[in-house]
């Protein structure tokens, strides 16, 4: 068995010492010395890293079924009741939930049903900025974006807003943050087999605390919904507009369902969807806005497009999306340089031969989309933020202009590819262009230093730091704090933001 090239490993820890806090950066650096397919041993865990579109295609398409599973960890198993969908191996349970996600939970009917809610949440979000703008106060955009995406997904799942002022909503938001954080942290016990039962870093205690908070909250929500359903049934009330919880409870109560769902499955699914949906969408808008603040010329072109398509008399809405190609291109360019999930992460279920090398079963695979997105072999001027490269009218770079977002072009996989690709792509691509368009249509953004952070001054304006923060996803290191300055007349903003 010839493994792919590999640096020298140390006893016990293998290559762990080569990893810095931003793992996709470390993988790029190692790959630049050892080639596009490398093998690493992280403690006792085998890992391969691929860093070209050709390898991405070979591994994720040609050998799709081999790499159809995902990594597990002590935190993931406990916090997802060992019943996760996003971390499940490819099998009957995963297929069953995939079907429900595609056709019901995140299907067209559900997306249309929740369109008015997304609109209302967006207007509420703009309202926060509008009221701050009236008194010239700054807003932490990072936190507001997380509230927005959290509210949208909470409404779809539980018909509740997570940022209403009662205690439960705050717990829900804190738990999501804690879960995403702990999933992305490095737990020695997951990598060094003989440390499996030792808890050096106090991980287990933290996991149990999060578990108890989360489990208590969900138990309460599920029980009260079950009681409401019982009451409605006995009063023969038909409830048409179902949310995720109703759909999942229907499946749980269906004795003929292909798979008998349990309460734990439902709780695990909530965690999967909350954590997968919240950070990713919020991070995308923040990077896009940060790039636009750094590049006023791009911002100006975007505003010209909005002005032409939407005008000044109303706020951008989802039905405008198809007519906003430049906004769509800005989002693609944001995904190229700042993919919220920087690496497609899978696990092999059997041995497999790639380019003459053997990749053993149970190896973790990371396809480094972040480094492919910045590789001059695949992109002209890769370090520049140039949305034009994705415009259909761009004849100079006809390769990039035809690249779509749905996993067919292996140099650009922000939502992954194939069966395990992101089921939330339609929801994300409905709400992201409108949110970004409305933010830059309604306001100018005057950057303010977050406490302890120095801002650089570029060509007459602030230049934001584009460093990343370590974790499962790749957000900006510092929160984005700005004073919003209204751009639309008050007779347009007043009624919209009054809700
Ligand atoms: C900008 C927004 C988003 C980005 C960039 C993103 C990206 C991704 C990526 C890269 C994957 C792994 C794909 C693969 O292995 O091939 C994934 C999986 C997943 N995403 Fe998203 N996502 C986003 C939004 C959402 C939303 C809004 C939801 C749900 C409402 C969601 C739910 C999921 C789930 C459940 C999985 C696991 C699927 C499986 O394992 O089969 N995502 N996402």
Automatic annotation (TrEMBL):
Gene3D superfamilies xref list: Cytochrome P450
CDD domains: CYP93
Pfam families, alphabetized: p450
Cofactor(s) for this UniProt protein: heme
InterPro entries linked: Cyt_P450 (IPR001128), Cyt_P450_CS (IPR017972), Cyt_P450_E_grp-I (IPR002401), Cyt_P450_sf (IPR036396)
Main location: membrane
Compartments reported by the entry: Membrane
Family membership: Belongs to the cytochrome P450 family.
Stated name of the protein: Flavone synthase II
Source species of the chain: Hevea brasiliensis (Para rubber tree)
Source lineage: Eukaryota, Viridiplantae, Streptophyta, Embryophyta, Tracheophyta
